[in-house]
Hints:
Keywords: Signal. This protein is of the alpha+beta class. The protein has one domain (3-20, 28-190): Roll (Nuclear Transport Factor 2, Chain: A).
Amino acid sequence: MTSRSRSRAVGLTVTLSAVVLTSACNNPEPPAATSSTRTTLAPTSTTSTTSSPTSLTPAEKDLKSAEETVGRYWGVLDELAADPKKSLNQVATVARDQAAIQARNTLGTYQAKGWTLVGRTIVDSPTATTTDGKTFSVSACIDVSKVNIVDKAGKSVVRPERPDRMRYPYTVVKAPRGFFVTVDTLKGKPC
C-alpha cells in the first residue's frame, strides 16, 4: 500500500484503500438488510429516516433500496472499524467484488495496527440512477466530521487536513438476496 493510499484510508475513516493486495472469500448469498434513505450510521447502527411516499412503484423502491445500501455499507464498516474483534466476514452482508475486497483489506490493516474508529459516519443525500434496474449508480455525501481513528494508545491517526464532507460515487447491484455495493472508487468531490 502506498503512503498516499494509506493517508487517504486513514484520513477518510474507513474509506477503503485503493490497492487490493489480497482476495477474500465472499459469501455468495449474504442475507439482505434494510435501512433508510437518510441514514445516520454509528457502530450501534442507529438510523433516522425522512418521510417518503407510501406507494412507490417497484422501480422507485429499487432506487430507494440502492440508496439505502450505501448507508448500510457505511454502518457495517463503522461497526467493524469500531470493534476489531468482529469478523470481517460481515462485509459480505453489504458488499461484493472490489468494494468487499477493499473493505476487508483496509479493515484488516486497521485490526493489525490496533486502530479503532470512534464516532460515526453520516451518509447524507444519497441519489441513485439506473438504466437496467439491476446495476445502480449511487452518489452520497459522506460526513466524517465526528469520526476519529485512534491507535492503541488512544492517539488520533487521522491527518489534520482530512476533508470532513465528500460526495462519493458507488456502484450497487440488485441480487436475489438484496442490494450490495460492488464498487467504491474512493474518488470524491466536496459536497
